[in-house]
Structures are given as structure tokens and as C-alpha cells.
Design brief:
Radius of gyration: 21 Å
Number of strands: 0
Number of helices: 4
Helix content: over 70%
Strand content: under 5%
Oligomer: single chain
Distance between the termini: 18 Å
Largest sheet: none
Shape: elongated
């Protein structure tokens, strides 16, 4: 293989890798949209089912707040570690399927942690019979994290 054939082969592999990554990114954004659209649906269902709640903060309410805080820190830690490792591997070799799966897993983990915080708000509202004002911080933080953790193309994706 001469130099021009190698360059043509590398370009064809680069195009294939970029298309594969874009395909995975579209899939992750579709899953992300499902997570984001599920949130207003959950809030609507909870508001439809629950009547007026009690505005007293019990130990269980504080436990839900603690679990939500743990989910925020856990989401940043676990998602960040998985995505950082996968981006490093993809920068070295864009065709690494293990790195691509790790990137996908990191994205899904982040979305799951964000949605978990929304579910804690649902628990506060439905199970603990809290008010809407007690559940809104959970909904807001969950939505904020879902928007912050929107799947994006890795910045260090190998172009050669």
C-alpha cells in the first residue's frame, strides 16, 4: 500500500467512525428526549392524582432530599468518570467499540440520575403526601441536570 492508498483508507475509516458516532449520538438524544418528556407527564399525573398535601417537613421528606443530593453528586461522579475515560479512549482510537459503549453508558447513567431526582419529587408528592411546593425543587433540579447532561459529541473524538 502506498501513501495515497493509506490516506484514502484512513479517510474512509474516519468517515465511517464519524457516521457511527453521529448515529450513536442521535440514539442518545432520542433517549434523552424521552427522559425529558417523561418529566412533565410524571408531574401532571401526580398533580391529577394527589389532592392538597401537608406542608410539614417530616424526617422522610429530609430523607428524600438527602437521597436527591446523593444522586446529584453520584451522577456527576459516575457519569463524569465514564465519559472522561471513554473520551480519552476515543481520542486514541475512534473505532474502539468498548469506548463507544462506555460513552453510551455514561450518557444513560447521567440521564437516569437526573430522572431519579424527579422520581424523588413524585415520592414526596404522592407517597409522603407533600405539597406541590415541596416537590418542585426535586422537579427543577432533575430537569436542570437532564438539560446540563444533554448528550454531545465528544470534544476529543479522533478525526484521523
Amino acid at each position: 500500500m502506498d501513501v495515497s492508498e493509506r490516506a484514502a483508507y484512513a479517510d474512509s475509516m474516519n468517515v465511517k467512525n464519524v457516521h457511527q458516532m453521529q448515529s450513536q449520538l442521535r440514539r442518545m438524544r432520542l433517549i434523552h428526549a424521552a427522559f425529558v418528556l417523561a418529566m412533565p407527564l410524571l408531574v401532571w399525573i401526580t398533580q391529577s392524582v394527589c389532592g392538597y398535601g401537608c406542608s410539614d417537613w417530616t424526617l422522610w421528606h429530609w430523607a428524600m432530599a438527602g437521597l436527591a443530593l446523593w444522586a446529584v453528586f453520584g451522577g456527576f461522579q459516575i457519569r463524569g468518570r465514564a465519559i472522561h475515560r471513554s473520551e480519552e479512549a476515543l481520542a486514541r482510537d475512534a473505532s474502539d467499540p468498548k469506548a463507544l459503549r462506555r460513552w453510551q453508558a455514561g450518557q444513560i447513567i447521567g440521564m437516569a440520575f437526573g430522572e431519579t431526582i424527579v422520581f424523588y419529587g413524585v415520592v414526596v408528592r404522592m407517597v409522603l403526601r407533600g405539597t406541590l411546593w415541596q416537590a418542585i425543587p426535586f422537579y427543577a433540579v432533575g430537569l436542570f441536570l437532564l438539560l446540563v447532561w444533554t448528550p454531545r459529541m465528544p470534544a476529543t473524538f479522533a478525526r484521523n
